[in-house]
Amino acid sequence: MVTLTAPETSTDTNAEAAQHAASTDSFSVDLAGSPVRELNQALHNAVDGQSWTVANPEGKHSLAVGIDARVSVTINGHAGYYAAGMHQKGDVTINGNAGVGLAENIMSGRVHVKGDASQSAAATGHGGLVVIDGNASARCGISMKGVDIVVGGNIGHMSAFMAQAGRLVVCGDAGEALGDSIYEARIYVKGTVASLGADCIEKPLKEEHLAELGELLAAAGRTDNPADFKRYGSARNLYHFSVHNSTSY
Amino acid sequence: MCGIAALQLRNPLLHPQMGSLLSSMMCQIVDRGPDSAGLAVYNTPGLVSAGTSTLSLLGKDQGMALPEVKASLDAMLPADAAAAVRVVGDTTLVSAAVGTDLLVKAVSETLPGSTIIGRGEHVAVMKSVGHPMDIAAEHGLEAMSGSQGLSHTRMATESAVTAGGSHPFSVADDLCLVHNGSFSNHATVRRDLKREGVVFDSENDTEVGARYVASRLQQGDTLEEALVNLGKVLDGFYTLVVTTADSMAVVRDPIACKPAIIAETDDYVAMASEYRALAALPGIENARIFEPEPGKVYTWSL
After folding, report:
1. In angstroms, what CA-CA distances link B200 with B119, B163, B164, B236?
2. Of A58, A100, A157, the CB nearest to B259
3. Cβ of A97 and B275 within 8 Å?
4. B67 three-state secondary structure
């Protein structure tokens, strides 16, 4: 599988960074009394090993975006649009629902939503793991480029549209036009698929797939049996433009 | 982009808080449409009363002193109609104990330049241009009691930023409609409705949606059927909220271009463009919160 390179590795080698990395400081932020901008700036200044707890998110937008350190962030409540966007290295847990554009363009690390996620979750994600315990709305994993997504419930229509790399695991049902114009991502669905998009087909579930699915489910803390899933992927008929296919796009 | 916040109160004990709750919701959707706004409130004492028709007129200045308006209406209406005229914020409310059609006729003759933005026994509609929370404050939303409330903050796309182009559109008794999105074939549908004799107040695309729903209801559709039919006839992006005297409906276009989130408890049904508008509602932590499915009509009745 082709996976675009995610900046996974930390190159911090100086003593100061190492010292910070060893710290296990905990911080809490109450958004009832401070702006999101301050929270995000603090998270951008944070160093490896720190943990942050955010209270009273109340659906505010752009919470915990742009994290670029091995920090752990717990948001207690519902998040608005673009939560944990442009995420690298860190670990964000949302004890609630997330709005449109969760973990958009995630590069690495982990984002876990205990409730539902709205549209375009993990859109264009290059790497890392996004776990949604509840349902995800339409366009989940749209244009995914290497991210792994595990959804405990259902996903909406046009999910994994133009997916290029990565894995999408759905423990519930998938909506219309799953994997439309898909390139090389692998999709696993346990429940029903309302319809497959252009050039997306069911494929055999081989040992290697059962193994990777088992790993993904375990990483998401789920106990579903990999053998209960079906695999979907690209028929590769629309991979390169051909005038004969012009009506299929 | 526009913002919607709507509230149906199932628990009468919450009725006195309708305005303050709706106001708290509305202030979270201002960013989505800061150019103009509108409100519809149901069964609000002081604005409407049972057994009386109330018309909401756009603007506080109708070009005629209020006593003169009342005198003209009294002369036209039956003796026991007890016409009343008052200004609330930037809206003129006219009430009388007669049917709505008769009151519309009398108001249209008295004030031929007026625009009727709301009608019915239960609803008052207020809309204007400017910052939504200024508009809400000017009309005294915070203190209003009521059974249902609907608010809209507009970011104009299909027609100019005018008070008349603000939502809600209320074109039949106690019927209000607000819209986030745009209808692409509104001119075609408007022409069809005009041929059927429907009269329009504005160039706005949403008015076409409201007139279409009113036309279907008049032909015997239920609210749900009318919105299913709207989905077949009107093309475009939409999240719509429609309210009647005792019900509320939500529908999104089949590809869910525009957001919507619903919170339901034993005490209320609340709908908003974004969760943050619901965050301050009482008991929200135990509410059933969900996004309406694309193309599916949801209705709730009191």
Report:
1. 15, 15, 11, 20
2. A100
3. yes
4. helix
CA B99, distance to chain mean position in Å, is 20
Integer CA distances (angstroms), A58 to A179, A191, B20, in order: 33, 32, 18
Q: Report the distance separating Cα B46 and Cα B26, nearest Å.
A: 22
Token pair for B173: 């008794």
Nearest CB to A80 within list B256, B274, B290: B274
Q: Contact, A129 vs A147, CB < 8 A?
A: yes
Is residue A9 over pLDDT 50?
A: no
Cβ separation of B275 and A137 shorter than 8 Å? no
The reported pTM is: 0.90
**Are B278 and B284 spatial neighbours (Cβ–Cβ below 8 Å)?**
yes
Judge whether residue A240 has pLDDT over 90.
Answer: no
Q: How far apart are CA A183 and CA A2, in angstroms?
A: 10
**Separation CA A99–CA A110 (nearest Å):** 17
Where does chain B show beta strands of DSSP type E? 3-9, 36-42, 53-58, 84-88, 91-96, 116-120, 123-129, 148-154, 169-172, 175-183, 236-243, 247-252, 261-264, 268-272, 288-290, 298-301
Please list the active-site residues of B. Answer: 2
Q: Do A58 and B290 touch (CB under 8 A)?
A: no
Instruction: Tell me whether B257 touches chain A (CB under 8 Å).
Output: no
Report all structural domains of chain A as residue ranges with CATH numbers, in order of start.
Answer: 7-236 (2.160.20.60)
Residue B116 or A23, more confident: B116
Structure tokens at A143: 């244009």
pLDDT of res. A244? 77
Backbone angles phi, psi at B177, to 5 degrees: -140, 135
Element (H, E) at B156: none
Give the separation between CA B204 and CA B193, rounded to whole angstroms: 14
- Residue numbers in A near B280 (CB within 8 A): 58
Cis (ω within 30 of 0) for the bond into B168? yes
Q: Give the number of beta-carbon pairs within 8 Å between A and B.
A: 45
Q: Is B136 on the interface with A (CB under 8 A)?
A: no
Low-confidence ranges of chain B (pLDDT < 50): none
